Amino acid sequence: MSGDYFATIYKDGDEKNWESVDEVTTRYHLLIAEGNKKDADVVRAEWSKKSLQIKLPEPTGEVWQMIAHPNPDLSILPPFSFFICFRFKLTTPYISKDDNPFYIIDNPIVREKVFRLPMVRSTSWKGNLYSALWQLGHDKQNDAQMQRIFGDICGENEEQSGRAGRLFFYPTFFIKTSLEIINPHDRRRRVGKNPILFESVPVGAEGEFRMLYVPFDHIGYEEPKTRRQVADDLKLIAQGVQAMFRTYGFSAKRTSGYGTASDAVESGQLIHKIPGVTLQGGLPQIKKPEDVFLKYLDETGRVKPAFAGSGEGGLMSNSEYGEYKKTGAQAAGGGSLSEFKRFRAWYVAYGKGWQARLQHSATSTDYPVIAFESLSELVELCQNMESDTTNGGAA
User: Fold this and answer.
1) What is the pLDDT of residue 142?
2) pLDDT at residue 143 tops 60
3) Percent helix, strand, coil in the chain (nearest 5)?
């Protein structure tokens, strides 16, 4: 069932449910239609208090995994294709504007139509990356590299035909929402006017960024020329991604500081099909989890939400696990406290590496996988690729 219909709020460890947002919206608009604005404002105020921090249930199943965690098969793509993916954490709230005309506030966040989870559309990623590179001094109108990366629109006459770009983006989904209150101030009196509510994704929420590069327009060209092009593109794309996440943002109102993320990432991978190029790095060394540890992990290698807490590595502390075991850990599949402590120690040391290994294994190809733990490291890796290409990779 959609998280939008049965929202869940967490406060001091307690879980509470309330009527669906659709029901609240309907009740609010009925009161407005009846001319009862006072009671309508009370309904919205109550909803706003409960919506300050919401955690939505994430859908499960094979179909959802394909939608939320796609892994393209590089074997069916032309040489010099590459795929970049990582899990990021917001350092400022993310805001977007949905086109839903029937909502309890005027500024709902963009949601996926079926599962109703907050999302960043693939087109938004493309536009925001282009904007970041434009602010770094790159303009598609006079830059052949930007044109081949992002594509070009059709010209005014038939002789000026457009073309698609080499970059393809995937949507990002979140399982947390919150509310931002923006209060415009009167310039003369310097006091707030009417506070405006914006639905948002809060600081600390995590999402996955996935991007595919396919040089379909260079199939059959000489390898040295294509290799140099791709190396240049990869370097520019990495710089743009870092600027988009860290400096310029990817959210509505990004000029006010919304929609930025931390430099550190999880499960960062650059998977490439670029012949004649070697990069430093690779999948991190890991220790395979014990069989008894698997019940604490989901299919992607991340800890199940039932065992998350304030302890080391984002897992439950000893006291939290002891209390939870009395009320639900057994039902969730948890074992003894000593077993959980051993699992926690393994997860802190090898959890990220295990997630990266599982993600690589989920693809149907066996191409080089370069792991990175920060956007700065990604930029450095791509600069090294350019060096390899210049110093002999193109031979």
Assistant:
1) 76
2) yes
3) 40, 20, 40
Question: Which one has a higher pLDDT value, 208 or 287?
Answer: 208
Which has more pLDDT, 37 or 292? 292
Predicted confidence (pLDDT) at residue 329 exceeds the cutoff of 60: no
Say what the pLDDT of residue 7 is.
Answer: 39
Shared-domain flag, residues 160 and 300: no
Residue 3 lies in a domain: no
156 and 226 belong to one structural domain: yes
Q: What tokens appear for 21 in the block?
A: 């947002």
Q: Do 361 and 377 reside in the same domain of the chain?
A: no
342 and 215 co-located in one domain: no
42 belongs to a structural domain: no
State how far the Cα of 103 lies from the Cα of 21, in Å rounded to an integer: 8
Specify the 3-state DSSP secondary structure of 136.
Answer: coil
Lowest mean pLDDT among 6-10, 174-178, 229-233, 291-295: 6-10
Q: How many CA atoms lie within 13 A of 326 on its CB side?
A: 5
Q: Which two tokens stand for residue 360?
A: 């690589």
Would you say residue 26 lies in a domain?
no
Q: Rounded to an integer, what distance in angstroms lies between the CA atom of residue 61 and that of residue 66?
A: 9
Contacts of 365 (CB under 8 A, 6+ apart): 73, 74, 75, 271
Question: Distances from the Cα of 219 to the Cαs of 65, 75, 81, 215, 216, in angstroms?
Answer: 31, 15, 11, 7, 6
Which range is least confidently modeled, 2-16, 151-165, 257-271, 321-335?
2-16
Residue 3 pLDDT: 37
- Name the residue with higher pLDDT: 148 or 158: 148
Whether residues 329 and 381 fall in one domain: no
**Strand partners for 212:** 83, 168
Same structural domain, 275 and 288: no
Together in a domain, 333 and 379 = no
Structural domains counted in the chain? 2
Specify the amino acid at residue 190. Answer: R
The whole-angstrom separation of Cα 351 and Cα 238 is 25
Q: Is residue 85 part of a domain?
A: yes
Phi, psi at 210, each rounded to 5°: -140, 135
Q: Is the CB of residue 133 less than 8 Å from the CB of residue 245?
A: no
Residues 269, 220: one domain? Answer: yes
Q: How far apart are CA 22 and CA 102, in angstroms?
A: 9
Q: Which domain holds residue 351?
A: 283-367
Dihedral (Cα; 171, 172, 178, 181), 10-degree rounding: -60
